[in-house]
Amino acid sequence: MNLSRKANEAFKLNKWDLAVARFSELCKKKPDDLVCQQKFNLAKIKAAHHHLEKADILFKNNYAEEALIEIEIAADLLPNDSTIQEKLKVIRTAIVSEQKVKQEQKEASSPASIILTAIQEPALQLKTNDPMDMQFDNISYKTILQTMSKVANVNIVFDADIEDKAITLHLNKVQFMEAAEIIATITGNAYKIINKSTLLFYPNTEQKKTYYIDEYVRVFFVSHTDVEDVARALRGALGLKSISTDKNLNTVVIKDTLNRIKTAENLIRIYDKPKPEVVIDVEIIELNRNKAQEYGLQIASASSQGINTSLVPDQEIKLDAGPIMSRSHFVLVNLPSLTFRLIKTSSDARLVASLPIRTVQGQTGRVRFGQEVPVPQTTFAPIAQGGVNQQPITSFVYRNIGINIDITPHIHLNNDVTLDVAIENSSLAGQGYGGIPIFGTSRVEKSIRLGENETTIIAGLQKEELRTIFEGIPGLSEVPGLGRIFARNSKTKDEIEILLALTPHIINALPLTPEDLQIFPIEERISPGPGAPRIHEQTPTEEEKQNDLFK
């Protein structure tokens, strides 16, 4: 059963994938057959909608991974179908959300997260934390803090090196810790919670920070990102100095305050994400065109170019006395022949290769078609230690010749893909001194930005060889006009052109969440937010509610 019959049979039996495969092969053999092309396109449409229906059923039954496989097949068959592309985005979004939930559950149950969460600063217990109105003009800030301590029923102590000064303070509707932070900021001080009822104020200097601030150590296990890249980001963004990495365990060790370690944890969580993956369909077409033209009279002796004959004596001639030798005793050998040539040839050859390359963000995928050629390299070393470099040592390195393709993808947030492409076509061009090979190389480098499932064609990698041969009898071949008729004229033209078709398909996009794009503060010692000291409010008695200074 021939291929055409097999393709039509698969089409009649509604075996769409098989029909697509067979019609594809048939159309390659018959590129000018319009009926074959029409049936091939119809089979692709039928197969794409069949996989779309299967994807819908699987997705409704919560089989998102299996549905993704089906919808990606449909997208490969019909890359410009808007319905299929929209369904593909919906399924991928659902998978990313599901993976995010699983990752959050995994991180929440990890021992490292539990240990870090368990470490908390002492909670300051206040008698009341109701908003207050404060009006002070040119009053010592120590006096203001001491008055606040009486209202909140907490102790406030001062470092021995702290300097008192008068300030003016007008605040409305502020809580106790907000007022304490404002006073510490405008006076150049910092504070630390000693225990549940004591707050310490000290000068905000590096020496005092080193003395009062507690430091912790945290080990972060990085799964997807290079630890050196993470360490550089932490040093640049947070200014962390006590940080080290271990490439064998892929860990980052940080020594700093608890709040800054929490900030580093947020940054690492954003950095440590799986790299996006992409499959690039590569189709290579090599066009070889050969044209030759030859005409003229070729005069040549057997097994040699031109006239190469000789006059030799007969083997029966003897050196005995007798009559003088005649012409019949000599033989003329290797007589030239006269050949008239009028030839014109033209040939086309096409090499097609199709293969997928799967790689991740920023890593180069490589394809090599051809062979490896050994190239000698000679270095010189001393015969004895400390001597002159005069002993030659020859080694060999292997160079790939043929078609070499390097593709590096960069995936954008909108699912566009930038491909850095380098195409090289190399061949042996001859031999140099000492038999060292000489290479001929053509190279193209481009950066292309494509949408998902969009195809681009790269051309321009072309090589042309022109050879002209003129052979004739000296003198006769130089006669103007007739000289070329009595000579052999040969002209050969070889053209090689490489065409490359690239189509990217995103397998896994960058799993970004809305929280990853938010601005978060660097949690210093005195700053509101998640890292600020905890406050426990005490219920005051009726007598304690009376206050003349605060409304």
Can you describe what's shown?
This protein is an alpha+beta fold and 551 residues long. Helix content is 28%, strand content 40%. The protein contains eleven helices and 20 strands. It has helices at residues 3-12, 16-29, 34-60, 64-77, 82-108, 111-118, 141-152, 176-186, 206-212, 227-238, 258-271; strands spanning 124-126, 132-140, 155-158, 166-174, 189-195, 198-203, 216-221, 243-246, 251-256, 277-300, 310-313, 330-333, 337-360, 365-382, 389-411, 417-431, 437-450, 456-472, 487-508, 535-537. Strands 13-10-19-18 form a four-stranded antiparallel beta sheet, with no helix packed on it. It has a four-stranded antiparallel beta sheet with strand order 14-15-16-17, with no helix packed on it. A hairpin with a 5-residue loop joins strand 16 and strand 17 (437-450). Helix 1 runs antiparallel to helix 2 (16-29). It is elongated and about 120 Å long. It starts with a helix and ends in a 14-residue tail after the last strand. The model is unreliable at 111-118 and 525-551 (pLDDT under 50).
